[in-house]
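Throughout our pipeline, every protein is held as a single compact record rather than as scattered files. Nothing more is needed to write down the fold, since each code stands for a local backbone conformation. The record that follows is passed on verbatim for readers who wish to inspect the format.
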Amino acid sequence: MMQIRTNQHPVFIGDEVFDQFSEWWSGHSHSFSSVFILADTNTHDQCVPIFLREIQGFGDFEILEVEEGEEIKSIEVLHNLWQALASLGADRRSLIINIGGGVITDLGGFLAATYMRGIAYVNFPTSLLAQVDASVGGKTGINVDGIKNLAGSFYPPLGVYIYPGFLSTLDPREIKSGYAEVLKHGLIANKDHFHAAMRLPDTDTPAFQDLIQVSIGIKAEIVERDFKESGLRKVLNFGHTIGHALEAYFLGSPREMTHGEAVAFGMMAEITLSKIKGLLQGDIADELRDSLQNLYGRTFLEPTEIDALLDIMRSDKKNEKGEFRFTLLKAPGFAEPDIPVSRPEVLDALKITFIAP
């Protein structure tokens, strides 16, 4: 088992994480008055039974089950969960265990952060995306009026326990979705990691597990240096400004994208934007964009859809004084946050990336 310890929370990775949690629980269970497991309908059926089978001496608990999908990251669902906790007698010494993908760790973390001004929680991420990114770092949040993570907090868990076996419950699309974040970590911080990830090792090989550990290490190191995202941590937003707009725009439609798919397309456009800004050498930008397109394909948009994306991006949290701010690439493995970008520059990048030739 591998452990990554930060100032904010420890991350445990490997088949022995249940033993690690059981050992921790045996020494800390007296600190908690009640325990709640938050899961969606999918992880409740496929992952919660694994957790309950493996944890020793867990005792009494209540399960909070929600529907699956990005739509549940809402104030309405959060309100229902507050009411459920209150009706079940949760107090400030209660513990929430989030078992699920990035939606559950985001929602469950924000539930913990806001119930009675903050109660304890731990994450057992079950998707690749959650394991390499969403569950690590203490970012929590919900979507409001179609804007991704408009309400949220920096509120670290007591620990993150990453069990690779959960990945066997995922379909190939979800694996590929999470892989976008692995590629992102390489593009912003470690070009060798990016190139290794582009070789796409089989998910059952030790090499794949090594890639996951490297990605988690990159994310954890950045969070360690800038927990509240005052500077460096913003590099983790690469691909997300345009990616979040794509994800929000197509949510609930026949063309709905997973988070990772949207981020992959967002990275393609933001690589082009890096070239337009003169930060990234043109031939390198083209090579990186082509590599991502070979893996994720292309998506094409109408001019009216591009206008809609620009409107969504105007509400992005990274903007300042109405001005677009992006994390862009200077070279593979080197990203720079807070780059001011004009509307015409963003428009050019979107047209080049998403308008059919």
In short: The two ends are 49 Å apart (CA to CA).
